[in-house]
Structure formats: structure tokens, C-alpha cells
Design brief:
The chain is an alpha+beta fold. It contains 16 helices and 11 strands.
Length: 495
């Protein structure tokens, strides 16, 4: 049975309007309070549904075919709207946020760092980061899994971008800054009143400080590399070669914008995917057992996977794919029309805000059987996350689609698979007794304060002392339980 079959395109698109449009309230409140429920309610009103964000009209695309048509026409549906307005204030015009006319140049410059052959060579560093993290865990220890996964992914992305330029202290600072930034971005997306964010609230001050510190750290790394005058085979090396050559292709500001963009998207999304995976495995012991059986068989006594193991970690990758389906880190995006266009049964004016949600598509019963169930087996037939397992209009789009599909999708999938296998080789992670809190979306989606208890798997001995001269482990996150609001709430207090 094909579990990723997009709905057959209708003969005529149905457009509608979401109920509850009031000038003083609008749907921004629903997107803050119950965003996932609100999004999943929209297909009942049409394939293209009008909503209000403050005084602005916006349209949500609810059908996978329409989403793909929009993503393939990047000239008409350019990156823009409330989300990208806020992101550009943080990232500038890097590859994630730049307008259509500059995207091809930027992507061509950065693409070599994320080609499959290059990603394959990162298997060992990915496994090292994961092994360093969990080596010193102890039976019964409570670990903040959300922070731990950010430690791993920040370390790996730091290697890709800067080689070894991020020392443990700076890596921890980057991780903390990214966490604060992501909390503040969502409210800035759905609350369209700029004046509010000029108020000196504690959340606004935290956000402003985090953005400034993140850019300062990147600037320090760039300055040190330039002073050292050394060529390195990393993204920073590529950017500096393009910026400092006889005919510069990029500006110094663009170097910084690209690095901040790739740090934020590369570390945050993979960390949330992994946190979701461990949380879901705890709730589904049969899937966890199958994962452990595969990891034990493939690694055959080794503590971490190597390059040749990746194609054999089929079920492990299926767990990653299913975690991305149920909780795609990028869950809501905006586009802006550059001209008047007939779309989804409506004539949209130039400058219209159009939204699409991978979460909405991934949870559609018309595209996935039992969409709320965690079923890694649905991916065993060869369909790949983000691929065309459901045909050209696949509803599975965790990395978007078209020419602006995520630059690092192959990298993110490899990192998640390697990290999951490395940790699962030694440990089971269990939630402490008590109710499971629902995930609260921010600008990205996933657990932000997932505290779990470590249980050493049978047959796994405690680690030996680290030999003198061995690679020093990066500092792990605190095992203390964070306050839920500090850990990722999306209320106005966190703005």
C-alpha cells in the first residue's frame, strides 16, 4: 500500500474563507494559541483559503498540487511575506531569504559544500559529535534531550562552516543564541504590529541580545580566519575566496549573512527532528525495538556507524522520515506574489501573502493512511522524505520543493540518521512518569524542553576513561529541567 499518495487533482479548485475574520482579532491569534489545530481546520473551507493577519489578507494553500505549482514558479511566488520580513532582519539576504533574482548565484556558490559525495565524507565527524555527547551519560541520569541534540547539530554544522573554529565555549554560546532567536521569531511573524516589538519587554531584550551576539561570534570567526591567511576546505573558505579575490563575487556582509543563515537552519532543524524521533520512539516501543535490532546488526559490535553503513540503516532512516512527517521543523512558510496571478480559483493581486504548511500536508488523510500514527514502516517501500514517493505532487515536503528546496536536505538526513544510530547503539531514552505535554510550535516545530532518563541498553558496558590525547568531548547541556516558558513557548511574553 502506498502511504504517501497525494490526492488526485480536482477538476476545479475550491477557494474559501476561514470563519472568524474580525478587524480587531484576526486569525493571528489562532495561529499563536492553537496553530496546528487552526491549520488542520482550513482544508474544510477550500483548497485555497483566505485568512487575516492583522489588517492584511493572506491565503493558505491546502492542496499538495497547488503547493507544488507555487513552489515551482519562484518568479511569481517569491520568498516574502511576514516570515521572511522577520528572517531578513536576522539573516539579511542569504541563500535562505534572498529574492528570486539572486538565488541561483548564491546557490551555485554554496552547493558544492552539500553535494552527496561531500556529505558522505562527514559521516565520521557526525558520529564523533554524537558519541562525544552520550559517552558520559549514566544510567538513571535525566538529560535535556532538546538541548543535547542542539549541542550535536551545532557542532557538526560548525565543522562544515568553520572547520574547528568554534571552540566549546563559542559552540555553547551559538546554541543558546539560536534557541532564543527561534523563540522570538514566530511571534514576530504572526503579530504584524512592529511597534509592539520596540517595547522594552524582557523577551524582546533577550531576542535583540541573542541576534547581536550571534552575529558578533560569526564576525570574530571570519576576522580570525582572514588574519590567519589560511585557506580551509569549508564553507567559510569558499565564501572568503569569493569575497577576497581580484574580482569579488560577494560582499563582506553577504559572507556573514550566509553563515548566520546556515547556522540557524542547519542546527535547529536537525536538532528538532532528532528530539521528535526520540520522543516518538519512547511512545512506540515496537518501533524502538526494530530500530535497536537494525543498529545492532549493522554496527556489529562497533559503537558508531561508518560511511558504508548508511545505506544499510534502512529502518533508522525510516524513523527519521516519519519523524519529519509528523513534526516537520519547517511547518509554516510564506510567499509573496510579484504580479497579479490566477491561482487556486482566485485572482490574487500583486503583493499578496500566500502561506503553505508542510504540517498541514503531512497530516492530510487524503495523502497518508492513519496520518496521526507513527509508522516508520510506511517508508520502507523506497519513498524518500522530500522525494516523489507520491508522484510529482507529493504531500511529503519537509525540505520544500522546486529550485528553492533546502540546500542541505541530504546533509540533514545523513546527520539525523548517523546521530540516531550512534545514540541508540548504547541508550534507551525514557520520559519520566507523567503526562506528555503537547508540542508548541515556534518559528520551527519540535520538542524544546524534552527531558528524558537514560537507560543503558543490555550488553552495553560503561565507557572507559578517555585516553590522554584523545579528542576532547564538547560540553553537553545541563540535565536540569527548564521552565516550559523559557524552553520554547510562543506567547507574547517571549517576543
Amino acid at each position: 500500500m502506498n502511504h504517501c499518495t497525494a490526492e488526485h487533482p480536482p477538476t476545479a479548485w475550491k477557494s474559501g474563507t476561514a470563519p472568524g475574520i474580525l478587524p480587531s482579532v484576526t486569525h493571528g491569534i489562532s495561529l499563536i494559541r492553537r496553530p496546528l489545530h487552526f491549520l488542520n481546520s482550513l482544508p474544510a473551507h477550500g483548497d485555497l483559503v483566505e485568512i487575516r493577519l492583522g489588517p492584511r489578507r493572506a491565503w493558505v494553500v491546502c492542496h499538495p498540487r497547488l503547493v507544488h505549482e507555487m513552489l515551482r514558479d519562484t518568479r511569481t511566488f517569491d520568498k516574502g511575506g511576514p516570515l521572511y520580513t522577520r528572517l531578513r532582519a536576522l539573516m539579511g539576504d542569504g541563500v535562505v531569504t534572498c529574492p528570486h533574482e539572486d538565488h541561483r548565484r548564491q546557490r551555485r556558490l554554496l552547493q558544492p559544500a552539500f553535494r552527496p559525495a561531500r556529505v558522505a565524507r562527514l559521516t565520521e565527524p557526525m558520529a564523533e559529535e554524537a558519541e562525544d555527547l552520550c559517552r558520559d551519560w549514566r544510567d538513571g541520569q535525566e538529560v535535556d534531550v532538546s538541548a543535547a541534540m542542539m549541542t550535536v547539530t551545532t557542532g557538526v554544522v560548525g565543522r562544515v562552516l568553520f572547520s574547528d573554529a568554534l571552540d566549546p565555549g563559542r559552540a555553547a554560546e551559538v546554541r543558546d543564541c539560536l534557541t532564543t532567536v527561534v523563540r522570538g521569531l514566530f511571534v514576530r511573524t504572526v503579530v504584524p504590529v512592529d511597534a509592539f516589538f520596540r517595547l522594552p519587554t524582557p523577551g524582546h531584550r533577550r531576542y535583540t541580545r541573542a541576534v547581536a551576539r550571534l552575529r558578533a561570534i560569526v564576525d570574530e570567526v571570519v576576522t580570525r580566519r582572514r588574519l590567519a591567511g589560511e585557506a580551509r576546505d569549508d564553507v567559510l573558505g569558499t565564501l572568503l575566496a569569493a569575497a577576497d579575490g581580484p574580482e569579488p563575487e560577494v560582499t563582506g556582509r553577504e559572507v556573514q549573512d550566509q553563515l548566520v543563515s546556515l547556522l540557524l537552519t542547519g542546527a535547529e532543524s536537525a536538532a528538532l527532528c532528532l528530539s521528535s524521533a526520540f520522543g516518538l520512539l519512547d511512545l512506540h516501543p515496537e518501533a524502538e525495538q526494530r530500530l535497536h535490532e537494525e543498529v545492532d546488526a549493522v554496527l556489529a559490535g562497533r559503537t558508531r556507524p561508518a560511511l558504508d553503513d548508511l545505506p544499510r540503516l534502512v529502518y533508522t532512516r525510516s524513523v527519521v522520515d516519519e519523524s519529519l512527517r509528523l513534526a516537520p521543523p519547517g511547518w509554516l512558510f510564506t510567499r509573496l506574489t510579484t504580479r497579479e496571478v490566477e491561482f487556486g480559483g482566485r485572482l490574487l493581486p500583486a503583493g499578496a501573502t500566500v502561506l503553505y504548511s508542510p504540517y498541514l500536508l503531512h497530516h492530510s488523510p487524503g495523502s497518508f493512511a492513519d496520518p496521526e500514527r507513527f509508522l516508520p514502516e510506511r517508508w520502507r517501500g523506497g519513498g524518500e522524505a522530500g522525494g516523489d514517493g507520491g508522484g510529482p505532487y507529493s504531500a511529503m515536503i519537509p525540505f520544500a520543493a522546486g529550485t528553492r528546496k533546502c540546500l542541505g536536505d541530504t546533509f540533514a538526513l545523513a546527520q539525523a540518521t548517523v546521530t540516531l544510530a550512534t545514540i541508540a547503539r548504547r541508550w534507551r531514552l525514557r520520559r519520566p512518569p507523567g503526562p506528555v505535554a503537547p508540542v508548541r510550535p515556534a518559528v520551527t516545530l519540535g520538542p524544546r524542553s524534552l527531558v528524558m532518563r537514560c537507560e543503558r541498553r543490555a550488553g552495553q558496558s560503561a565507557p572507559a576513561a578517555t585516553p590522554t590525547g584523545a579528542r576532547t568531548a564538547r560540553p553537553g547541556p545541563s540535565s536540569a529541567v527548564s521552565e516550559s516558558r523559557e524552553a520554547g513557548a510562543t506567547g507574547v511574553d517571549d517576543a
